[in-house]
């Protein structure tokens, strides 16, 4: 089965988040693009829209069996698949003509248009005569986007990841059409599926009051931690400790087991800093402390956190290759006892989710999800992501034709069709009998040897996230819900989370490498824990201070 993903929240693995049954099987500036746009655009992101009038948010039509949460930012859960799917788009969005897009390719290259039944059906669903889709692998997205922007020849839709330096430059320089006049306030109700977008997704993607694209909503946290309960029972523990020191003791006991269920096992695989940061309440990457912007690495408890991690390393908790290329498949092979992944990574479809693959490898395996505790007591402070996993933008020069803009927005509205609709089923899963079938429990399952056609439907806009749990895993429902709610409610954001810093985007890779080099050396014992101060100063000297100053300047100017 082909698998397509949405970028966003499986931070520990791939750029995340394709929900349900995914079936997809040198720095350049935007100067060329901007000169081609001329005066045809609305005001740029630095233009007159200083006060954002957020589009109204409408309720999504309820689907029987949908399990919602009272915690904002937690995605609804659904066991199995709906018994019936409804039509929500009653008229085709377009009336002929051509359409074009630039989007990410998840998975293997797709079959060409003339042999691709999904591509052809997509054209029919949208009401266009032809759809020229440019699909680029996620790994080369930044370079391909830079080339596209420099060419000045943009397609009707461009998928944008705002954290990409070239995308950020294009957004700030007016490359894309402002959509305020089409979507702000109640105007969005002309597009009922877009109107279900949570307000956080609009504020996360707006720039200086300008709506520069249609955002793809995402839960602010959708990753889960899991421990092998069967391994815990072997050391006499049947519940995850709520105290961080007790959890450390458990982890170190698990590291001594050697084998579980007939498999060689390791406590944890790769050395993943973000997984363990809630232990010391590190929280968001950038924070405001006493009115000043700071970074989680600069918090006073960071040295204690490094010492804690160094104890885990010394006690053999991590795989021997944790600093290099630890096998990412250890968990599903039944060899990793503590693990983090997105909900989709654990429960994608009955035969592809890592929980069930682990169970297949070790039939006696049992599992328990948990929210990381804090050394200060209670649940640790978990980092929260953006409410949007990117957005689809319309080039500024399309603003010359308002009717065309409205047609393009109707097409975006089709892509945002909700969970439980025929449209979302097609976009997410392809064609029944060709890409998927339903099993006896009404779960979507892959068809035998499905053709690689489906990735073309990934424009970058999806249904509002619903975490679909296979029937076979319904015994995990309450544990999953409680864990997501605990982790999400533990986090908090500040004004700095809504800011975009070009300085930060430009320095991000370099600063990440500075931290990685010191972190790995300190945790593995090659440097003393007291080098935490040197880590912090080097981070500041290599560009971190410039980033903090830029965020601080923005905050001061907004106050």
Description:
The chain is globular. The protein has helices at 31-37, 117-126, 141-151, 165-172, 180-183, 199-205, 229-234, 244-255, 273-276, 302-314, 343-347, 354-361, 402-415, 422-429, 477-490, 502-523, 532-558, and strands at residues 77-79, 98-105, 130-137, 157-160, 214-217, 223-228, 259-260, 263-264, 286-289, 292-295, 338-342, 367-370, 388-393, 436-438, 444-446, 467-469. It is built from 17 helices and 16 strands. α3 (141-151) runs parallel beside α4 and α16 (502-523) packs antiparallel against α17 (532-558). With 559 residues, the chain is of the alpha+beta class. Helices cover 32% and strands 12% of the residues. 49% of the residues are buried. It has two domains: 55-218 and 386-479, 3-Layer(aba) Sandwich (D-Maltodextrin-Binding Protein, domain 2), CATH 3.40.190; 223-383 and 501-558, 3-Layer(aba) Sandwich (D-Maltodextrin-Binding Protein, domain 2), CATH 3.40.190.10. β2, α2 and β3 form a beta-alpha-beta unit. A five-stranded mixed β-sheet has the order 3-2-4-13-5. A three-stranded antiparallel β-sheet has the order 11-6-12. A two-stranded parallel sheet has the order 1-16. InterPro entries: Bact_solute-bd_prot1, TAT_signal. Residues 1-22, 35-56 are annotated as: Disordered.
